[in-house]
Design goal:
This protein is of the alpha/beta class. The strands form three sheets. Strands 3, 5, 6, 9, 10, 17 and 18 form a seven-stranded mixed sheet that branches. A six-stranded parallel sheet has the order 13-12-11-14-15-16, sandwiched between helices. Helix 5 packs parallel to helix 6. The longest helix is centred in the middle third of the chain and has 13 residues. It is globular and about 65 Å long.
Length: 376
């Protein structure tokens, strides 16, 4: 492309400081360096983690100014030196979880937790300690090493999945975070079994994907739990057999679920990121073999667990990106969507342009959207 090796000037939604709306700014995106790829972002989902970092309390401090966004799909614009697996024009999904394919964790079937460039990407820079985005002469940090609320971005080649050329980017972008996380929480981490009973706490995108995973796994009873009854109809589309609103009951929701299921569910999946709800989810499982998977994200919360409930045979586990080996598994998930084995369209409630990003945040926080997809 004519832009290869050149600084690209484009638009981005910039967070100058915490707690303030995003500003649409002109930014400059540098060419990729060694083992880096520059991408033209076509579509990005608006995830609760983006909102939480800007407005919430459950995230570790990261430097500002920064460009948020981490659930996206785009097209390779150019590649840096020593990049061998990507070429300009490739359709790709950037990944906040890398897969280098060489480290002890990548070589183990036990985990997907590759740590290639991990520490730097967590604080918003790439391998050399700098970002590739700047605004008004100032470095702009890249959220989780991605920054998809920008028309172009640069990511490491180990944090990028090449996908089939016929995939619709405004749909498969959701596989960059929320859908993969919830779906994998059920089928990979939870290993939900046929004919089992499940409770899914939180019916946002991650929770609905967990419901879908429970259905695909063959669960016979899938109970959605949310304080927003407007989400119950959507949950049924993904496979929920019934839904419960904790506000409709005087008893704690874990006691309600225990009564509904003769002692508790086989599997509980927490998809909110609230430590109190995590505790409720864990306590809603059946003793002797109940299993609880935490998929909701918080970096600062403390969960309260009664030790006896562990001793009585329950298990508690966490999942990151649904347990998927990111580089190799995301293209397979795209294939599943294209082969109608996986729902994506049904998650998308709104489509907006980049300059409406703050509207998308408002829809998310009010509970009026499941996923808004931003076109860049």
């Amino acid at each position: 492309m004519s832009t290869t090796g050149q600084v690209i000037k484009c638009k981005a939604a910039l967070a100058w400081e915490p707690g303030k709306p995003l500003a649409i700014e002109d930014v400059e995106v540098d060419p990729p360096k060694v083992h880096e790829v520059r991408i033209k972002i076509v579509a990005t989902g608006v995830c609760h983690t983006d909102w939480e970092y800007l407005y919430g309390q459950g995230m570790k401090v990261r430097p500002f100014p920064l460009v948020l966004g981490h659930e996206a799909a785009g097209v390779v614009e150019s590649v840096g030196p020593e990049v061998t697996k990507f070429s300009p024009g490739d359709k790709v999904i950037p990944l906040f979880l890398p897969q280098c394919g060489e480290c002890e964790r990548c070589l183990s079937p036990k985990t997907n937790h590759c740590r290639k460039n991990w520490a730097n990407m967590q604080v918003g820079v790439l391998a050399d300690g700098t970002s590739r985005i700047s605004c008004k002469g100032q470095q702009v940090y890249q959220f989780l090493g991605i920054s998809s609320f920008c028309q172009y971005t640069v990511v490491p080649d180990t944090s990028l999945a090449k996908i089939r050329c016929d995939a619709p980017l405004d749909k498969v972008c959701l596989l960059g975070c929320g859908v993969s996380t919830g779906y994998g929480a059920a089928v990979n981490t939870g290993k939900v079994k046929k004919q089992s009973s499940c409770a899914v706490f939180g019916l946002g995108a991650v929770g609905l994907a967990a419901v879908m995973g429970c259905q695909v796994a063959g669960a016979k009873r899938i109970i959605g739990v949310d304080i927003n009854p407007d989400k119950f109809e959507k949950a049924a589309v993904f496979g929920a057999t019934e839904c419960v609103n904790p506000k409709d009951h005087k008893k704690p929701i874990q006691e309600v679920l225990a009564e509904m299921t003769d002692g508790g569910v086989d599997y509980a999946l927490e998809c909110v990121g609230d430590p109190a709800i995590m505790t409720a989810a864990f306590e809603s499982t059946k003793d002797a073999w109940g299993s609880c998977v935490i998929a909701g994200w918080t970096e600062t919360g403390m969960m309260n667990v009664v030790v006896e409930k562990i001793l009585m045979g329950r298990t508690l586990s966490g999942t990151y990106f649904g347990g998927w080996k990111s580089v190799e598994d995301v293209p397979k998930l795209v294939d599943d969507y294209m082969n109608k084995k996986l729902k994506l369209d049904e998650f998308i409630t709104h489509n907006l342009p980049l300059d409406q990003i703050n509207v998308a945040f408002g829809l998310l926080k009010s509970g009026n959207s499941i996923r808004t997809v931003i076109s860049l």
